[in-house]
Amino acid sequence: MEPVAVAGAGSIGVAFAIVFARAGHAVRVWDPFPDALERAHGELSDRLDQLSVHGLVENPNAVSARVTFTRDLAEAVAGVALVQECAPERVDLKQDLIRRAAQNAPDRAVFASSSSAIRPSLITADLPEGLPDRILVGHPGNPPYLIPVIELVPSSNTATWAVERARAIYTGAGLRPITVNHEPEGFVFNRLQGAVLREAYCLVRDGVATVDEIDEVVRSGLGRRWSLIGPFETVDLNTRGGLESHAEKMGPAYARMGAERGQDDPWTPELVSTAVRQRRTLLPLDRWEERVRWRDEQLMRLTPLWEDIRATS
């Protein structure tokens, strides 16, 4: 397997090193600060030991042996297929790091930024010709060795081959890429998380419920379902007749809730039709009962584990 560079030895850099090394890649972790590299080395060992205890890494010593730490950026990026940039959330730092790394990385190396919200077009602005073709955002769930979703966010300059090469590397490392179009700030992960968090703050402000009570709704309610199925599949399975029936019955109430918060994003017939078409491609209505039964069986199977976790938390 081709080597991978991780530029930045913070927590997310260490997490990516685990992801790639666990999959068999040689990983070079770069950071300009010796104390950061020393801390990262200890964190790597600690995380691998934890994963081993839970059976998520078979041989932590073998995984650790694939990871090297260096202050030499040229050494880190030599011959790599991908540079996972993990610099702080500042455009100037990311641009400078990518610009310097590109001087010694192969011409076909992909540069993936771990940015949580910075659009890739901002990162590529004013970079040398040809370099923006190879840059995209690769935003992970945190930590990626436990939360496998990763968002691929290309700019309008990103070449198709770069997106597909990044997708292949991430998939081979056990991650589950989604493609984010149009570069919305926050992408998909943080926009969904932000929507829930904004409403949670409003509910606390309005005295509707306490912080812990709202967390309980997510812990024991929404979160349990969402660990198996997402919001579209949840309402699709909650309503006989599926998504179309749910939108007809509940759409007006959700519109009123949105208007209460100053939001005007109606579920138009065209929008509902698009969502329904995509859901029915994934799950024809004649398999609805079967999928509902699957959902319930998975919830039953996981309930003892969840309750055991709650009892010891």
Spatial strand sequence of the major β-sheet: 3-2-1-4-5-6-7-8
Anisotropy-based shape: globular
The CATH architecture of the largest domain would be 3-Layer(aba) Sandwich
Count of the domains: 2
- Main structural class: alpha/beta
What proportion strand? Answer: 5-15%
- Discrete helix count: 13
Which stretches are low in confidence, meaning pLDDT under 50 for 5 or more residues running?
A: none
What is the highest CATH level, the class of the largest domain? Alpha Beta
Span between N and C termini? 40 Å
- Radius of gyration equals 22 Å
Helix content: 40-55%
Q: Which sheet architecture does the biggest sheet show?
A: 8 strands, mixed
Corresponding CATH superfamily of the largest domain: NAD(P)-binding Rossmann-like Domain
Mean pLDDT: 97
| SSE string | EHEHHEHEHEHEEHEHHHHHH
The count of strands amounts to 8
CATH topology tier name of the largest domain: Rossmann fold
What does this structure look like?
- This protein has 313 residues and is an alpha/beta fold.
- It has two domains: 4-179, Rossmann fold; 189-312, N-(1-d-carboxylethyl)-l-norvaline Dehydrogenase, domain 2 (Orthogonal Bundle), CATH 1.10.1040.
- The protein has 13 helices and eight strands.
- Strand 4 (82-85), helix 5 (91-102) and strand 5 (110-113) form a beta-alpha-beta unit.
- Helix 1 (11-22) packs across helix 2 (34-53) and helix 10 crosses helix 11 (242-260).
- The longest helix is centred in the last third of the chain and has 25 residues, at 288-312.
- The mean pLDDT is 97.
